[in-house]
Design a protein that fits this description.
The chain is of the alpha+beta class. It has a domain of about 150 residues: 2-Layer Sandwich (Heat Shock Protein 90). The protein has 14 helices and seven strands. A five-stranded mixed β-sheet has the order 2-4-5-7-6. Strands 1-3 form a two-stranded antiparallel ribbon. β6 and β7 form a beta hairpin. The protein is elongated, with a radius of gyration of 28 Å. InterPro entries: HATPase_C_sf (IPR036890), HATPase_dom (IPR003594), His_kinase_dom (IPR005467), HisK_dim/P_dom (IPR003661), Sig_transdc_His_kin-like_C (IPR004358). GO terms for molecular function: kinase activity. Pfam families: HATPase_c.
Length: about 425
């Protein structure tokens, strides 16, 4: 009742509703436009940029204050983004935390420190304005706002405690600097908000289009399902009809086709919701989840079903969404079966294996297939949204969704593969309460 009243009250106040949607409900994007290559180039810009400007401000265009040890440390921070451990998986929590820390220290903290130590001269006034624009361009506007405030306050506190003795900013220049900072900050905020709204609008339009297409596809599928029911009823009325076995097989094929197509539609809708995954606190049993998914999967044939083997070593409980993780396993099973099909496999027993167990203090779910595998050149790209290999093995379709769901549960999704040998997708998850 209180929730309904609050919703009505909020609906009458558009400004507060907009603020709630922007601050609380909009998905947080710690890294804008993430990719391993972009992280590498950002790291290189810090690594080489600090060395370059150390020379410019000390030798070519000397400034009152320049600090080589600080520049060296800043360069090393930039180098961290160039390492494969950090940049190979932009969606991981490690990468997001390192990225956030590096940019916070490099931009608001270091730049404010240098601005104060140089008495707010024109060079560092312009640099500070550029810093604000850059910061809002690489991370979520909420994180950029919080980082600018906290980083500026930390640098100011450090300057009061350890900073050099320099003349203060002239009184008549303080208002000028305040106006410049306000202008840079307001423009950065407006541009960042506009970009965030544009990304969400594009995603919403995509989901709307997919929803319309799904509705249009489900209508003829429902008709096909009804036809299958009608054929089965006809077989029951005429059990002695010599064509009854063929008619029953036709009805079964129609029902299987409808089930498979509906499954594909659900999969694509789930994959399209990549940036709209809500937080979940559901306790999920790994063994229960795997058993349910394997039993409910819409196999195309009994032979395909019989090739799947489940090895249950030990159960563990993790915190996430059972529905989302069921979709993850659906994607992995689908890709594995496609890979077996591409290898002209006859689906021998055990060609697709799903293992559930624990290693040290983490739970593990592995999906292993003896299919075509993945070429080494494609491995760095398979977790990109909607990436698929030209060989049609199916690997990579929806893997970005899988990775996002696993990361939202605090886990990791890794792959090992050799072309023409097979692939192993391993999910590692923190154990709830562990």
């Amino acid at each position: 009742m209180k929730s309904a009243r609050f919703s009505v009250w909020l609906a009458q106040r558009p400004s507060l509703q907009w603020l709630r949607e922007e601050l609380l409900l909009a998905p947080l994007e710690p890294i804008l436009h993430p990719s391993p290559r972009r992280l590498w180039w950002l790291g290189l810009s810090f690594f080489s940029g600090n060395a370059l400007f150390a020379w410019i401000w000390s030798s070519w265009l000397p400034q009152p204050y320049e600090n080589l040890p600080l520049r060296v440390m800043a360069s090393l921070l930039g180098y961290s983004l160039m390492t494969r451990r950090v940049n190979h998986d932009p969606g991981s929590r490690l990468t997001q935390r390192v990225f956030g820390l590096v940019f916070w220290l490099e931009l608001p903290v270091l730049f404010t420190w240098m601005y104060l130590c140089n008495s707010g001269n024109t060079v560092w006034l312009a640099t500070m304005a550029a810093m604000v624009l850059i910061y809002y361009h690489v991370t979520d506007w909420r994180l950029a706002t919080l980082g600018t405030i906290t980083g500026g306050l930390l640098a100011w506190g450090l300057f009061l405690l350890f900073g050099p003795t320099v003349p203060p900013l002239p009184q008549d220049q303080r208002a000028v600097h305040a106006v410049v900072f306000a202008f840079a900050w307001s423009i950065a905020l407006v541009l960042s908000l506009s970009s965030a709204n544009l990304r969400r609008t594009q995603l919403a339009n995509t989901l709307t289009t997919i929803g319309i297409m799904a509705h249009e596809l489900r209508t003829p599928l429902s008709t096909a399902d009804l036809l299958g029911d009608a054929i089965k009823m006809e077989v029951q009325r005429q059990p002695n009809n010599p064509r009854a076995p063929q008619m029953e097989k036709l009805a079964l094929r129609l029902h299987t086709l409808v089930r498979n197509m509906n499954h594909q539609i659900d999969t694509q809708i789930a994959n399209a919701k990549l940036l709209q995954l809500p937080e979940h606190t559901e306790m999920v049993s790994a063994i229960g989840l795997v058993n349910d998914v394997v039993a409910a999967y819409p196999y195309q044939s009994s032979r395909q079903r019989e090739c799947v083997r489940v090895h249950l070593q030990s159960d563990f409980i993790f915190q996430s969404s059972s529905r989302q993780f069921a979709q993850v396993l659906d994607n992995l099973i689908k890709n594995a079966l496609h890979s077996l099909m591409a290898a002209d496999s006859k689906y021998p027993h055990g060609a697709l294996r799903i293992e559930v167990g624990m290693q040290r203090d983490r739970g593990r779910i592995s999906v292993i297939d003896d299919g075509m595998g993945i070429e080494a050149a494609l491995l760095p790209h398979i977790f990109k949204p909607f990436f698929s290999s030209s060989r049609g093995t199916g690997h990579g379709l929806g893997l970005a969704f899988c990775q996002q769901v696993v990361h939202s549960a605090g886990g990791t999704l890794q792959v090992k593969s050799e072309y023409a040998i097979g692939a192993i997708f391993t999910i590692e998850l923190p154990i709830a309460g562990g």
